[in-house]
Amino acid sequence: MLFPAMTQQKVKESPEQDPDGGWGWVLVAALFVCNSLVFGLMRVFGVFFVEFVQHFGESTQAISWISSIGLAAQQFFSPLGAALGNAYGARVVVMTGGFLAGLGLILASQATSLFHLYLSMGVLSGLGWGLIFTPMMATVMTHFTHRRTLALGISMSSIGLSAFAFNPLFQLLIEIYAWRGALLISGALSFNIIPCGALIGPKQRSTHAEKVNSDNKESQSTLQKLSSHLELPVLFERPFITYVIAVSLLNVGYFVPYFHLVAHSRQVGFSEYQAAFVVSAAGCSDIVGRIASGWFSDLGHFRLIHLLVLWTTLTGLSIAMLPVSSLTGSYPALMVVSLLYGFCSGAITSVVFSVLPRIVGVGRVMGALGLLQMIESGAGLFGTPLSGFLRDVTGEYVASFAVAGSFLLLGSLTLVTLPHFFSRTDPPSPPQKQLTEQ
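^ Monocarboxylate transporter 13, sequence as received from the core. Prediction below:
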């Protein structure tokens, strides 16, 4: 762990909050569903990728921009979701995001050009995803202290579960209803995020947001309120900036296998269902990695930041090995490396978000998470098209995966530069704002 989550100051919890239990577990279940319908659907776009190439007759790089715009929009609009969540509560923000995400995918099913997909599947659905993830994640974080990493691991294990189930399912749906019908169904599924958002109490928002709303409202300028909701002061703190740089580097290569592994597998001679099952297998081991990592991290034997470096390094190496394992045409070899990638990449996500409250404090986590997502959006926008460009230039995906893996290794090296990284114990926490009761 980079910084202890709590200082000697006592944070007063509202009566509605029950750390490490109670309604928090209901919200974990809601986040479980939301993640499957956001990032789980993102990972199934590799199946649509091949269909888009064949239908529109465009280059790999041009098609790759669809998924990259969606991912980048989700991250870029995260500060908006955080600010709205702090100002008005997470409930209405998440429900609105669920509606926009579903609407974007439904409109994408009627697209007649790549530009239509960029706007609908990329910008509009990405905006919806940005309004969902940050408020929902921050809400769950504030309900847990000692079992936070496990709670996040469980809620995010749905990403691997949905990747395992969705890839063969949508391959079948494409064969039955074509890609337009499959996108229409994915939009309808996304509307299930709306009732998940309704599970958040109407007054459930971050404790710091309550302080902002109750502390001299009339004397605050609009810019002061905006700065408070967005937590802009964290941008001047070295640990946060270092962490953002590291996560951004990680973000460049992290999603590349889920967008291009299906196409790579089919290029080297495997069948459509074999290619889809490779991603499904990675999704299955992803589930195990998230839960196992969350459980092990909360035991406290190792600092969270050290575990994050370990999992990031192993993920980078496994991504670089993916095309190498299939050069001989060995399907079992590709499957083994895919399982390794799935486990390690899943283990990262249980830790990467749990480190953030240790750096900025629980009271500022929603705004800080939104800023982190926005800044790393540029990296997400850059990663998949770069991979597609390298494939267009070389005619294969070996260089694409090698470069993607190298960005994760650079992220690991950046994490090593964090203050007190080599200490065996956690350093004192920086002063945190005193939080008040609601």
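The two ends are 29 Å apart (CA to CA).
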